[in-house]
Specification:
By secondary structure, this protein is of the alpha+beta class. The protein has three helices and seven strands; from the N terminus they run αβαββββββα.
Length: 128
């Protein structure tokens, strides 16, 4: 009985883990009139301001995880976002943002792409 309960718990924990976002192929992304360094900093700040734990911080790729919060009826959070940066010359940067939801409670999770881009605009100015 204990082994069955342990196995069920393990399956639920694994199923609840958020999937790692992958960079979409042929995505137009958005352009900012900012250097890669300034854009990377703005992406990092956007993750933090929106309540993500930064799990990967590389010059051209950032990733964050939104922790779960348990409510009375629903559990929210569990999303993982990826932000990819591509320099376009010295003063412009292409940004691609994707959100992946975990397998559990997808109905209470959300897509964070626009929220992160808006937060980046506060530092970098309007996107093109």
């Amino acid at each position: 009985m204990k082994a069955r309960a342990l196995a069920l718990t393990l399956v639920l924990v694994i199923a609840g883990c958020a999937a790692t976002p992958s960079k979409p192929r042929n995505s137009a992304g958005v352009l900012f009139n900012a250097s890669i360094e300034a854009t990377q900093k703005a992406a990092m700040n956007a993750l933090i301001v929106n309540g993500f734990e930064v799990t990967l911080n590389e010059p051209l790729h950032l990733q964050g995880f939104k922790g779960r919060s348990v409510g009375v009826v629903f559990t929210t959070g569990g999303e993982t976002v990826g932000i990819w940066l591509e320099p376009i010359g010295a003063t412009r940067t292409k940004v691609i943002v994707t959100t992946r939801k975990s397998l559990v409670n997808k109905i209470t999770q959300r897509i964070w792409n626009e929220d992160l881009l808006v937060a980046m605009e506060l530092e970098l100015g309007r996107r093109q």
